[in-house]
TrEMBL record, chain A:
It is an enzyme of class 1 (oxidoreductase). PANTHER family: 2-OXOISOVALERATE DEHYDROGENASE SUBUNIT ALPHA, MITOCHONDRIAL (PTHR43380). Belongs to the BCKDHA family. InterPro entries: Alpha-ketoacid_DH_E1_comp, DH_E1, THDP-binding. Keywords: Metal-binding, Mitochondrion, Oxidoreductase, Potassium, Transit peptide. This is 3-methyl-2-oxobutanoate dehydrogenase (2-methylpropanoyl-transferring). Its EC number is 1.2.4.4.
From TrEMBL, chain B:
This is 3-methyl-2-oxobutanoate dehydrogenase (2-methylpropanoyl-transferring). Heterotetramer of alpha and beta chains. Its EC number is 1.2.4.4. Residues 40-215 form the Transketolase-like pyrimidine-binding domain. Keywords: Mitochondrion, Oxidoreductase, Transit peptide. It is an enzyme of class 1 (oxidoreductase). The keyword Oxidoreductase applies. It catalyses: N(6)-[(R)-lipoyl]-L-lysyl-[protein] + 3-methyl-2-oxobutanoate + H(+) = N(6)-[(R)-S(8)-2-methylpropanoyldihydrolipoyl]-L-lysyl-[protein] + CO2.
Length: 461, 360
C-alpha cells in the first residue's frame, strides 16, 4: 500500500505539473464560471481519473499476492514486502567480445562469418584512418589546418560498425566517426577539402573542420551540439518505417552526450514510436576532461536502454569482430522487428579530445599507454587476420606508405584549391535568398572592394 | 473570458477589411470568382488546413502532445480517424523530442507538421530549432534540408493564462537566420498562411493566436488556397499614421484606428503576417506616405520585434518621419495573471499613442 500511496501521489503530482491540465478538453463556449479547477481537473486528466476509479473499484482481499492491478502497460502484481529496486545490479553488465587482447578467437564465440575480403577491407580502413589521423593531426600542429579531431583508439567501432551496415542505412554521427564515411567511399581528398573549407567542401566552407557530410553516402552532415541527432534519427527511422525500407537509422554518440536531454528524448521516442534505429554509444571514458565517474552513476549506458524499453548490448569496442557481430545483429533486429536497439561499445579515447586539448593534464600517461598498446584495436585485429593468413608484414608496410603518400598529396591539392566564393556566404540560409540577405551581400561586396586588406584574399568575389 | 473581452475590448468577430478591394490585399478573397465560403472560427480553419495538407500530400504527418484525440484546442480533430494513427499521432511529452523527430522526418522529404501545445513550452526545443532546423540546409551546403518542417504553437494572451500560457516568444525566433516566423490574424488568414507554411521549403514556426481560436469568426473559403509568406498586407488604409502589428493584437489596433478616426485621425493598419523574412517594403511605403509609425505587440517591449521594425524604418525613412516611432507593447515583466489587464497593450494605450504621435 505504501507503494500505492507513492504511486497515486505521483499521479497527482504529474497532474499538477502537467502544464496544460487546465486546457485539456476545453469547450467552445465555456463561461468563466465553469473554470473552477475541479471541472477542469476531471476533464483534463481523464487518464489519471480513470486510474483512480480503477483503484477505488479494486476488489481488495487479504492476499496481496493473488491480486494484480490492471494498469496501463500490463498487470502489476502486489507485494506486501517493501522492497526498493536497487540502484544497480550486483554484477556489471558483461561485455561481449570475440577476440581476446591478443587477437585470438575465443572458444564458443558467436561469430558471424566474416570472409577474407571484408576482413581485409576492415583492416585496410582502420589503418587508413590511423594514418589519416596522424598526418592531419600533425598538419594542424604545423598550422596548416585550423582544427582536427582524431579517432585514435576507436578505429574498430568506426570501421567495423560501418561494415555491418548497408549503404541504405542512414548515418547520424557525432564527430568521432569519420571511419563510417571512409568505409562508404568518402575519398581522402573529400576529407581534406572539408578540413580546408575549400571549394571542394560540400559544406561550402561554412563549418569547422571535421564536420563532414555526404548526401550521396547517406551520412547526415555533422553538427557540433551533442545528442541533437538522436531524436532526428528517430524521425529518419520513422520515415524509413513508413516507406517499408530495408534500412534503419544509425545514431552515434559518445558517453558525455548521454547526459544531454536529447539522448533521453531520442531513446524514449524511438521506443514509443517503434522506430528502426540503432543507437551506438562509444563509451570512451572521457568527455574532454570529464571522466564517466563524473558523468553518470549508472552501470554505463547500456542499462539506460532497459528503462526506456529498449533492447541493448555492451560490446568490446576494441574488438572489431565483436562490434561487427553486434551491429549486424542489432541492425537485423531493428529492421525485422521495427524497434530501436542500443549498443554500448566500451573503448578509450587514446588521443586528445581535439587539437585544442592536452589530455595529459587530466589523466595519467600510463592509462593512455595501456589502451594504446595492450588494448589497441588495430593491432588486435591485425593479429587475427595474420593468423588467418589474410595479411602480411609486406602488405602492412606498403599500405601505410601508400596511404601516407595519398594523404600528403590531398593536402597539397587541398591547400591550393580556392575558397568558396562570397555568394556561398549568403546562399542556403533559405531555399531562396531573401531581400535582407541580398542587400547585405551587395553592401559586403562594396566593402570588400573598398577595403581589400580587411578581407581574406583567397575568398573570390 | 467574457469579462476579459469587455475589459480588453476584444471583439467577438474579426471584421476583416480584406474584401474591400484594397490594392494591397493578398487574400484569395476575389469577388469575381466568389469561391464558396462559410463562416468558421480560427481553430476550425486550422483544422481545415491540416486536413487539406494531409489529403494533398501522402508524405505529410501531424504529431505532438495529445494531437491524436484532437488536441487540447481541437485543432487536430478528426485527423487521426481520417488519416490513420501512423500519420497522426501522440508523442511523448517532450518538446525537444518532438522537434528533433520532426527535423529527421522532414529531412527524409516528408512534411512534418509538429504541434507544441503552448508557445510557452517551445523552449526545450529551442536548441533543435535554432541550432538544428535553422542551420540544416546551410551547414550541409544544401545537401540536406528540413524544409518540410512546420512547428505550430498557440501563443499569446487568453485572459487567464498567466506566466506559462500567455507568452509571445516570436522575437526569439526572429533572431535566427534560416527560420521563418508566421502569425495569422484571422481564420481565413490562418488557413491560407498555414498551408503556405507547411508547403514552404523552409522550416517555419507558426504561432497561432489562441485567444482567437474560437472568438474570431469569418468566412473561410472551403477549397485549398495559400497566402504568400513574407508579404505584409495593408488591411486598413489611412494617411496620418502607420500601425504595424500581427496576430491577435491587430483587432485591438483596429479598434484604436476606428476610435482615432472619430477624432479625425486617419490610420493605416498593416498586418505583417511573416515576421522573418519580413516585408520591409510595404511598411516603408506606408510610412513614407504617413510619416509616422506605431508598432504594437503583446510581447515585452524590450527586445521585441517592434524594436527591429522601428530601427529598420528609421534607417530607411528618417527624413520622412514627423515623430518618434512609437511602440505599444507588453510590459517588461513576466506575463501576470491578476495584472494581465494592466500588462496588455490595450486599445486605449494604442489610441493614446496614436494621438501623441500624430500631435507630436
Amino acid at each position: 500500500m505504501a507503494l500505492w500511496l507513492t504511486r497515486s501521489r505521483t499521479l497527482v503530482l504529474q497532474s499538477l505539473k502537467r502544464k496544460h491540465a487546465f486546457w485539456a478538453a476545453a469547450t467552445p463556449l465555456r463561461s468563466s464560471s465553469s473554470s473552477s479547477p475541479n471541472v477542469f481537473w476531471v476533464n483534463g486528466r481523464f487518464k489519471s481519473t480513470f486510474a483512480m476509479t480503477q483503484l477505488h473499484s479494486l476488489p481488495f482481499s487479504d492476499s496481496d499476492d493473488e491480486q494484480a492491478l490492471d494498469f496501463p502497460g500490463g498487470k502489476v502484481t502486489y507485494t506486501s514486502e517493501m522492497t526498493f529496486i536497487p540502484e544497480s545490479q550486483e554484477k556489471r553488465v558483461p561485455c561481449y567480445r570475440v577476440l581476446d587482447d591478443n587477437g585470438d578467437l575465443l572458444i564458443g564465440s558467436n561469430l558471424h562469418q566474416m570472409g577474407k575480403e571484408v576482413a581485409r577491407k576492415i583492416y585496410n580502413n582502420m589503418v587508413t584512418l590511423q594514418v589519416m589521423d596522424t598526418i592531419f593531426y600533425e598538419a594542424q600542429r604545423q598550422g596548416r589546418l585550423s582544427f582536427y579531431v582524431t579517432s585514435s583508439g576507436e578505429e574498430a567501432i568506426n570501421i567495423a560498425s560501418a561494415a555491418a551496415l548497408t549503404p541504405d542505412d542512414v548515418i547520424l554521427a557525432q564527430y568521432r566517426e569519420p571511419g563510417v564515411l571512409l568505409w562508404r567511399g568518402f575519398t581522402l581528398q573529400e576529407f581534406t577539402d572539408q578540413l580546408y573549407g575549400n571549394k571542394g567542401d560540400y559544406g561550402k566552407g561554412r563549418q569547422m573542420a571535421i564536420h563532414y557530410g555526404s548526401k550521396k553516402l547517406n551520412y547526415v552532415t555533422i553538427s557540433s551540439p551533442l545528442a541533437t541527432q538522436l531524436p532526428q534519427a528517430v524521425g529518419i527511422a520513422y520515415s524509413l518505417k513508413m516507406d517499408k525500407k530495408d534500412a534503419c537509422a544509425v545514431a552515434y554518440t559518445g558517453d558525455g552526450a548521454t547526459s544531454e536531454g536529447d539522448f533521453h528524448a531520442g531513446l524514449n521516442f524511438a521506443a514509443v514510436l517503434e522506430a528502426p534505429v540503432v543507437f551506438i554509444c562509444r563509451n570512451n571514458g572521457w568527455a574532454i576532461s570529464t571522466n564517466i565517474s563524473e558523468q553518470f552513476r549508472s552501470d554505463g549506458i547500456v542499462v539506460k536502454g532497459q528503462a526506456y524499453g529498449i533492447r541493448g548490448i555492451r560490446v568490446d569496442g576494441n574488438d572489431a569482430l565483436a562490434v561487427y557481430n553486434a551491429i549486424s545483429t542489432a541492425r537485423e533486429m531493428a529492421i525485422t522487428e521495427q524497434r530501436p536497439i542500443l549498443v554500448e561499445a566500451l573503448t578509450y579515447r587514446v588521443g586528445h579530445h581535439s587539437t585544442s586539448d592536452d589530455s595529459t593534464r587530466y589523466r595519467p600517461l600510463h592509462e593512455i599507454e595501456y589502451w594504446k598498446t595492450t588494448r589497441n584495436p588495430v593491432s588486435r585485429f591485425r593479429n587475427w587476420i595474420e593468423r588467418n593468413g589474410w595479411w602480411s608484414d609486406e602488405e602492412e608496410t606498403d599500405l601505410r606508405s601508400s596511404v601516407k603518400k595519398q594523404v600528403m598529396h590531398t593536402i597539397q591539392v587541398g591547400e591550393k584549391t580556392e575558397k568558396p566564393p562570397v555568394a556561398d556566404l549568403f546562399s542556403d540560409v533559405y531555399d531562396v535568398t531573401p531581400s535582407n540577405l541580398r542587400e547585405q551581400e551587395k553592401q559586403l561586396r562594396q566593402d570588400m572592394i573598398k577595403y581589400p586588406q580587411d578581407y581574406p584574399s583567397d575568398v573570390p568575389l | 473570458m467574457a469579462t476579459g473581452l469587455t475589459r480588453f475590448g476584444r471583439r467577438m468577430r474579426w471584421v476583416p477589411s480584406v474584401c474591400n478591394g484594397r490594392q494591397f490585399s493578398t487574400s484569395v478573397c476575389d469577388k469575381d470568382h466568389n469561391p464558396p465560403a462559410k463562416s468558421f472560427n480560427l481553430y476550425t480553419a486550422i483544422n481545415q488546413a491540416l486536413h487539406i495538407a494531409m489529403e494533398t500530400d501522402p508524405r505529410a504527418y501531424v504529431f505532438g502532445e495529445d494531437v491524436g484525440f484532437g488536441g487540447v484546442f481541437r485543432c487536430t480533430t478528426g485527423l487521426a480517424d481520417r488519416f490513420g494513427k501512423t500519420r497522426v499521432f501522440n508523442t511523448p511529452l517532450c518538446e525537444q523530442g518532438i522537434v528533433g523527430f520532426a527535423i529527421g522526418l522532414a529531412a527524409m522529404g516528408n512534411r512534418a507538421i509538429a504541434e507544441i501545445q503552448f508557445a510557452d513550452y517551445i523552449f526545450p526545443a529551442f536548441d533543435q530549432l535554432v541550432n538544428e532546423a535553422a542551420k540544416f540546409r546551410y551547414r550541409s551546403g544544401n545537401q540536406f534540408n528540413c524544409g518540410g518542417l512546420t512547428v505550430r504553437a498557440p501563443y499569446g494572451a487568453v485572459g487567464h493564462g498567466a506566466l506559462y500560457h500567455s507568452q509571445s516568444p516570436e522575437a526569439f525566433f526572429c533572431h535566427v537566420p534560416g527560420l521563418k516566423v508566421v502569425i495569422p490574424r484571422s481564420p481565413r488568414e490562418a488557413k491560407g498562411l498555414l498551408l503556405s507554411s507547411i508547403r514552404d521549403p523552409n522550416p517555419v514556426v507558426f504561432f497561432e493566436p489562441k485567444w482567437l481560436y474560437r472568438l474570431s469568426v469569418e468566412e473561410v473559403p472551403e477549397h485549398d488556397y495559400m497566402l504568400p509568406l513574407s508579404e505584409a498586407q495593408v488591411i486598413r488604409e489611412g494617411s496620418d499614421i502607420t500601425l504595424v502589428g500581427w496576430g491577435a493584437q491587430l483587432s485591438i489596433m483596429e479598434q484604436a484606428c476606428i476610435d482615432a478616426e472619430k477624432e479625425g485621425i486617419s490610420c493605416e493598419l498593416i498586418d505583417l503576417k511573416t515576421l522573418i523574412p519580413w516585408d520591409k517594403e510595404t511598411v516603408e511605403a506606408s510610412v513614407r506616405k504617413t510619416g509616422r509609425l506605431l508598432i504594437s505587440h503583446e510581447a515585452p517591449v524590450t527586445g521585441g520585434f517592434g524594436a527591429e521594425i522601428a530601427a529598420s524604418i528609421v534607417e530607411r525613412c528618417f527624413l520622412r518621419l514627423e515623430a518618434p516611432v512609437a511602440r505599444v507593447c507588453g510590459l517588461d515583466t513576466p506575463f501576470p495573471l491578476v495584472f494581465e489587464p494592466l500588462y496588455m497593450p490595450t486599445k486605449n494605450k494604442v489610441l493614446d499613442s496614436i494621438k501623441s504621435t500624430v500631435h507630436y
